[in-house]
Amino acid sequence: MGKKISCHFVVFLTCSSLLCVLKVAVAGRVVPLLQGYEKGSYGYSRSFNNIFDTSNYGTVQLNNGLARTPQMGWNSWNFFACNINETVIKETADALISTGLAKLGYVYVNIDDCWCSIRDLKGQLVPDSKTFPSGIKALADYVHGKGLKLGIYSDAGAFTCQVRPGSLFHEKDDAELFASWFIKYHRNKWALKLVGHSLHCPIPGKGVDYLKYDNCFNLGIKPKERYPPMRDALNETGRTIFYAICEWGVDDPALWADKVGNSWRTTDDINDSWASMTTIADLNDKWASYAGPGGWNDPDMLEVGNGGMTYHEYRAHFSIWALMKAPLLIGCDVRNMTAETIEILTNEEVIAVNQGEVHPLSVGLLGAWGVFHFVEGRKVYSSGTDGCLQVWAGPLSGHRIVVAFWNRCSKAATITAGWDALGLESSTSVSVRDLWQHKDVVEDAVASFGARVDAHDCQIFVFTVHSAYHSEI
């Protein structure tokens, strides 16, 4: 066997009429997230970079080329829990296409706990024969045939949370199993001459693209010790599988998981209630300066459409998750959505806040990550009883700022954002677009902007900075 080539960036080569993927590891630090927002320039005040601090965002070391933007898709747990089967998964894939959700970026179809029943005599995970009689590979073929991606679930413990086999101490075998569902290798002599290595070019196939890795029955072993082995095992397969760490924020994963996973849960499980959603938003906000392309804070999946909150509360939920650059993983039954649920989940302007824009920089043949204005939004101001009138904000590309007015009080109120809270000089002029009304509401706001917000609702705007007037600093 020749040397294996590790993975980071992707170059496409022709391999005996097949599409061969060569992945090359490239060292270096990602371009600073706030590049272009010079202190005191274009109407920004000296406080701008402090308010939207990204100093804790580090080198992307997972080297799998994924998570340039937060993941979008669907997960089975919030609505179905253990009541899943291959028919539900297939019908969900169909619904993502028919509703137009897939075109908006919801491409991951993620199977949560309960797909696996036992390990066989060889130690291999075995899908539940009653609920997944065709096996996972056949299901992956179906999902990929729709142009979507398939996600699977396991646990960094002896058992999953529903007491199915976990992957602790089985990382290599399980990663190879996940990879075997979609890949076969073909030795390519032309590529060998090109790069001087023995290459096994993957023949395009169907299978798992995403792993959610939970934290139950962990035998008391620290997360920092349990999660890296699966990272290494996934990378050893040669496949790019999105690695979602579900550690529940127990050991502050934002401090270390950027070297391990593509996203990391910062909180315990969400439930379909206002109290849970608001609490989790606050917990996730603490880690805003640590996230960026390659690794994202994960405050858990969306509850929009599950019935436990009002329309306004769900609209706030979706707005804040988008602004926080959280994964947008739908948690309802997409086969049976109300018009209000569809309206929320398909708001392209709010989705654009979450997914942003990429401006690639060419570096030879391989290219690079490029310049990302991908800063997690955060709470920047609060007032009212217990701080229930809140302003959340985050910088976007093109001299724009996303600003959300979130009323967590029990009555309607006016929320105002002063420019000092947003890192703008008081003389700066901005235009304001309402992302829920889909219209421009103000052309020339200076010093502050306010709006009336219903109780438990959230209005979200994009401010575009127009003037370059600023004081000397």
TrEMBL record:
- CDD domains to which the protein is assigned, alphabetical: GH27 (cd14792)
Pfam families the record matches: Melibiase_2 (PF16499), Melibiase_C (PF17801)
- What are its GO biological-process terms? carbohydrate metabolic process
Q: Where is the signal peptide?
A: 1-27
> Which reaction equation describes what this protein catalyses?
Hydrolysis of terminal, non-reducing alpha-D-galactose residues in alpha-D-galactosides, including galactose oligosaccharides, galactomannans and galactolipids
Q: What class of enzyme is it?
A: hydrolase
Record's keyword terms, sorted: Disulfide bond, Glycosidase, Hydrolase, Signal
Coiled-coil intervals: none
Q: Does the keyword Ion transport apply?
A: no
Write one Gene Ontology MF term: alpha-galactosidase activity
Q: What is its EC number?
A: 3.2.1.22
Which family does this protein fall into?
Answer: Belongs to the glycosyl hydrolase 27 family.
Name this protein carries in UniProt: Alpha-galactosidase
